[in-house]
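User: Some background: our group keeps a shared notebook of sequences we're curious about, and every so often someone picks one and asks for a predicted structure to add to the entry. Today it's my turn. The entry only has the sequence so far, pasted here. Could you supply the structure so I can complete it?
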Amino acid sequence: MQTIANELGLSKSLVSKALANQTGVSEDTKELIRLTAARLGYRTNSSLKSVPSSKTGNVVVVLPREDLNDFEYWGKIISGIEEKLSEKQYSMILSGIDTSQSTSEGMPSCVSDRRVDGALILGRVPLSYVLAVQATGIPIVLVDTYHNQLKIDHVYAENLSGSYEATQYLLNMNHRKLGFVGDITYAHSFSQRFHGFNIAIQDFNSSANHRAEGFHYIDGAQDEQSLPYCPLQLENALLKHDRPTALVCGNDPIAIHVMQLLDKLAIHCPDDISIVGFDNLQKCKWVHPPLTSIDASKDLMGIRAVEMFLRRIETPELRPEHTMITTEIIERKSVKPASTLQLAKSKQEE
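Assistant: Of course. Here's the predicted structure to add to the notebook entry:
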């Protein structure tokens, strides 16, 4: 604690009050101290704090407010959470937060007033919010998100190996020019999926007679629909003579949007370009052609999150764990083997 105080030029007592979430310290200062504590590896051992003997019987599920509109994605996780909580006689409180607000303004009152027994935090909730929830002393599980600064229970999909499998699947279909579509700064999952894409190509090139190439489209830009890629940048890439014959997309909404873009450009999927998505949303069955995607078993993710919460309630001194749910490729009609013409063109360019 003294190291944190020295780092910020504050008193040790002020740091102590901030980490204990006591009054008399501004929210901005609390947030600065919590972030510094996380960066320096200090962990508030909230799991060892006293828990009221009279439980509320409630668990809050927190996610960014904008994600409440994307219930197709989060619905399976939330359904798994609710089912498991109900089985254990807990009630679920679903609470969206405005991530643009400070933690003092945006924190759900059920958390700040300790009217819940724990919190399951979903999606891209800022680190400052996670730290503020942790400071209340209630058990936390992070779901389908990741903060490597914190030693907290996490559950998420095996994003790297899932993307590796998708890329390997395309390579086995004789595709040698592949692209990854998605802003890798958008979320930790996108970064891991891009990493898996690259590793699969590297492994292939180290063991094969033919060379595969990987391209990255499209980072650092989002369109008006908040999709984490830039359609104009991808469109320019697809109109070039050396365009890829297959695309691995950061998630299914991107993949479906890319399919619409291909229609606009009179490029046919899968005859001209094959596409694989990620998450296996229900929409994958409805688009034309039906979208091949990586399934991350979202409902199981929700169930595992509740199991981790219950374990934390029963044995708070246990070391935090990270649980990864394995993925599976669901084959549909958006992928086909590279044509003889595409293969010949790739060989000529090697």
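Suggested note for the entry: The first strand starts at residue 58 and ends at 64. The radius of gyration is 23 Å.
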